[in-house]
Write a structure and sequence with these properties.
Helix content of chain A is about 35%, strand content about 15%. Chain A is α/β, with parallel strands linked by helices. In chain A, helix 3 crosses helix 9 and helix 9 crosses helix 12. Chain A is globular, with a radius of gyration of 23 Å. Chain B has a domain of about 150 residues. The chains are: A alpha/beta (about 350), B mainly alpha (about 475). At the A-B interface, helix 1, strand 1, strand 3, strand 5 and helix 4 of A face helix 4, helix 9, helix 10, helix 12 and strand 1 of B. Strand 1 of chain A pairs antiparallel with strand 1 of chain B.
Chain lengths: ~350, ~475
């Protein structure tokens, strides 16, 4: 009797909990507006890109990108639902509409664009694989690393890149493979291997956790191209445009000197480029664009321009202390270049 | 006046000597091999323990609120353990991203479950009664705090009804059954009346039904345990769902992606346990059934699930399943994981239960049948109670395994205790304290698993002595 009751009640509670969430077949923008928040797939485990603090407030480059999209749509940068996704499930989550935007340190590559039914909208961080070595080795270039033992996290593109680089330079190496980057960095710190390799942003983050950070140096060679960028599901040009221009507007704003602090004055600026970006005059987008003329103003006002986002999350004043490097604006010798708002 | 015979004076065995030297000789140095083992273990401890104590206790940093408190004078990570990191993150480790001002809801659900379990699990009768009484009082007060005095009264009476009727407990047990039923129906009507005044007629109608239903349930209860089991099985899932998810009764909605930490770990583990035992029993019975289709289905299910790793089941639920569903139709990710975990552990439970069923003499069944018991009664009253008692260690073993397997949900992006510590160690302001985080999480798991193991031992002893 009691067992039967328990089974029935268990089934009932499952049915109650089921409340299957359904997404309308309308465009993503309409769905997002109806839901009242942008669902953003993030990693949650990459320092400086997406991680929650002790109060559960998310921060990072990817997180601020998601906030920019929310600011453009809602005039409220907090209307984002951050959903941690793993590397294996991230594309499925995007394909099935479980998330609206994927901003998860994902490398933009041909096969992903071509085969997965997703669309990359740009790169919000240009990364690349690098090397960290102890200063005591006296090594100045990765080409001097012949015969070195290298700590690598397994299951990443890093393994392949290393093999390619050493083969191309006719050098030999011993790889010491670890399951997690925590473990690999720890063992590098104890001297288990001569070299630690991962993306340069990761190297900088790891260096701060070593017992003597000043004794280690990051070599100048970057042996792979890792343009990290957000992506959306293919087949909804309106949403793809919003996702694309949320990023471009931040880069354009930095180029034009518009910051979150001066954006209100800049609206009255005489510079036609700034007036067009901030929607000071007529709206440039029609109803297919889907947002009103203040969209970029809201992004800069509520989230900031690209430079502000960079400095806030990974810049010199943060524990990661990354250089702008190739993430500098094109006008200052970097790669950050966005099409104009015209 | 009768003469008494002092048994203790005659029968008490000589007190064994309790000198430390004797104890050491009997337990540590009882043979050459024993001495060797003792010495090598002592050496191992002497080698491993001092650095651990130094790191975890002596050099550890306990006070402060920022990373700077834990850095060495040179400004680097190292030295002793930084428990400040765990302290700062403690709330998140326990509740995940559940909103701070709503966390009492998790506590309330946990307290309800604890009290409910205390009335159901074999414990001392006094403990059970105290738990039941506490349940009535706390339930009434809690509901009164949430929804006003009227709701409090209704809930308290609703909870008290079945308890008053439970024959093994009630102070009213000497009253005739009719009087007791009348008393409960009277209380129910009173409760409904109070409800009616407070909420207006249409809602009162609902309360009357609810309270009368409670009275009717109570009528059938032979024991406090039966009452508790029905409340746990029928009311708790609905209550927990309403309390934890919210979105009704004035409670703000908390989506499952904000659930996390120990709360999520326990949610998955307890749901898995609650679902796997009944499902496992059904599967085990199905596997021994004479009906070929039923038997083959159960065998197929059990062997398929046992043939794949848990991680595969979770990936199937999290990555493959959404691809099969029509685009735009999604099922909550946590629910998918819950179903995956429940089905997985049910298959293992089925085999444990089958072991118990096979351990019983066929004579038990024959005896029950010869007494004229039907198939369901034979199974429910004779076979299963004995079979389950035999396999308690196996069941608890499966439960402990299940609790630890829940950490696999971290690979599908759910932030359980393991997942949340991974995100915590990625906070740029707290880089470099992974060891402290994982040590703490390991300790939490150890406490949970060890408590379950100890309770299992106690359960065996209670059931063997036939004292519930």
């Amino acid at each position: 009797m009691t067992i039967r009751l328990a089974v029935v009640s268990a089934a009932l509670s499952v049915a109650v909990a089921a409340g299957a969430s359904s997404v309308a077949q309308a465009g993503v923008l309409d769905t997002v507006k109806q839901r009242g928040s942008v669902v953003c797939g993030v990693s949650g485990k990459v320092p400086g890109f997406s991680a929650p603090d002790a109060q559960g407030v998310w921060s990072g480059m990817d997180v601020d990108y998601c906030r920019a999209v929310a600011a453009a749509v809602f005039n409220d940068a907090s209307k984002v639902t951050f959903r941690p996704v793993t590397t294996t499930e991230r594309f499925t989550a995007l394909q099935t509409g479980e998330i609206d935007v994927l901003a998860r340190n994902t490398t933009w590559s041909f096969t992903r664009d071509a085969n997965l039914g997703i669309e990359f909208v740009g790169a919000n961080f240009y990364d690349g694989q690098g090397f960290m070595v102890s200063k005591q080795l006296g090594v100045k270039s990765a080409k001097e690393l012949n015969g070195a033992s290298i700590c690598i996290q397994t299951g990443t593109t890093a393994e392949q890149n290393i093999a390619d680089f050493f083969a191309a330079n006719k050098l030999t190496f011993k790889q010491v493979v670890f399951e997690s980057s925590d473990e690999a960095a720890k063992l590098y710190d104890t001297g288990r291997c001569d070299v630690y390799t991962t993306d340069t942003s990761g190297l900088a983050a790891r260096r701060t956790t070593l017992s003597k950070p000043a004794d280690h140096v990051i070599l100048p060679e970057v042996i792979s191209k890792e343009p990290l960028g957000p992506s959306v599901r293919a087949g909804d040009p309106q949403w793809a445009n919003i996702a694309k221009w949320a990023l471009f507007a931040q880069i354009d704003a930095e180029e034009l000197g518009v910051t979150s602090a001066n954006v209100d004055e800049m609206r009255q600026s005489k510079n036609p480029d700034i007036r067009r970006l901030l929607g000071s005059d007529e709206a440039l987008g029609n109803e297919r664009w889907g947002l009103d003329r203040d969209w970029a103003y809201r992004i800069v006002k509520l989230v900031g321009n690209y430079g502000e986002v960079f400095e806030r999350n990974v810049g010199a004043k943060t524990p990661l202390a990354l250089d702008r490097g190739i993430n500098q604006l094109w006008t200052k010798g970097g790669l950050m270049y966005a099409p104009p708002v015209r | 006046m009768s003469t008494t015979f002092d048994e203790t004076a005659v029968l008490a065995p000589p007190k064994p000597s309790r000198s430390p030297w004797r104890w050491a000789r009997e337990n540590l140095f009882f043979s050459a091999w024993g001495t060797l083992a003792t010495l090598s273990l002592a050496l191992l401890l002497a080698w491993a323990l001092p650095p651990l104590v130094k790191w975890a206790l002596l050099d550890a940093v306990w006070s402060g609120a920022t990373r700077d408190a834990c850095l060495t004078p040179e400004g680097t990570v190292g030295g002793g353990a930084c428990w400040v990191f765990v302290k700062v993150r403690f709330g998140q480790l326990m509740y995940g991203f559940y909103p701070l001002e709503q966390r009492w809801r998790v506590d309330a659900a946990a307290l309800t479950l604890a009290l409910g379990l205390a009335t159901v699990l074999p414990l001392r009768a006094a403990t059970q009664r105290a738990a039941a009484l506490a349940g009535v009082v706390i339930g009434g007060l809690g509901a009164g705090w949430l929804g006003g005095p009227a709701l409090g009264a209704v809930v308290a009476l609703f909870l008290a009804g079945p308890l008053l009727l439970a024959r093994d407990l009630s102070a009213l047990r000497r009253l005739p059954a009719v009087a007791r039923v009348l008393l409960v129906v009277g209380l129910s009507v009173l409760a409904a009346g109070v409800g009616g005044v407070a909420f207006g007629t249409p809602k009162a109608f609902g309360w009357v039904t609810l309270v009368l239903a409670a009275g009717l349930f109570g009528w059938r209860f032979d024991s406090l345990r039966a009452a508790g089991l029905n409340l746990l099985g029928l009311v708790f899932p609905v209550l927990a769902q309403a309390l934890l998810s919210g979105g009704a009764y004035g409670l703000p909605y908390v989506p499952t992606e904000q659930w996390g930490g120990l709360f999520l770990t326990l949610t998955i583990a307890l749901t898995g346990m609650a679902a796997s035992l009944p499902l496992g029993i059904l599967l085990a019975l199905g596997r021994r059934s004479a009906l070929p289709v039923l038997r083959l289905t159960c065998i197929g299910f059990i062997e398929f699930i046992r043939g794949v790793p848990m991680i595969t089941v979770l990936f199937l639920a999290s990555v493959m399943l959404p691809l099969f569903l029509p685009e735009g139709v999604g099922v909550d990710k946590l629910l998918r994981a819950l179903i995956g975990v429940a089905l997985f552990s049910a298959a293992y439970m089925a085999e444990v239960v089958r072991g118990g069923l096979q351990a019983l003499e066929p004579g038990q069944r024959e005896a029950a049948e010869s007494l004229g018991l039907g198939r369901v009664q034979t199974m429910g009253l004779v076979i299963l109670p004995q079979a389950l008692r035999v396999v308690i260690p196996g069941i608890v073993n499966t439960f402990i395994g299940l609790l630890k397997d829940t950490s696999l949900v971290a690979v599908i992006g759910l932030l359980d205790l393991i997942g949340i510590i991974k995100t915590a160690t990625s906070d740029p302001n707290w880089l470099g304290f992974a060891a402290e985080g994982y040590t703490f999480v390991g300790l939490v798991f150890w406490v949970l698993c060890f408590s379950m193991a100890r309770y299992s031992l106690r359960l065996e002893r209670i059931l063997r002595n036939g004292v519930a």
